[in-house]
Amino acid sequence: MEQLRLKAMAKVNLGLDVVRKREDGYHEVKMIMQTLYLYDQLFLKKSRKPGIRLYTNLPFIPANENNLVYKAVKMIIDEFQIEEGIEIELKKHIPVAAGMAGGSSDAASALYGMNRMFRLGLSKKQLMERGVNIGADVPYCIMRGTALSEGIGELLTPLSPFPSCYILIAKPGINISTKYVYENLDMNAIIIHPDIEGMAKAIEEGDLKKIACKMENVLETVTAKEYKVIEEIKEEMKKWGALNAIMSGSGPTVFGLFNEIQKAKKAYSYLKAGHLARHVYLTTPFNILK
Question: What's the Cα-to-Cα distance from 51 to each of 61, 83, 239, rounded to whole Å?
Answer without folding.
Answer: 19, 8, 52
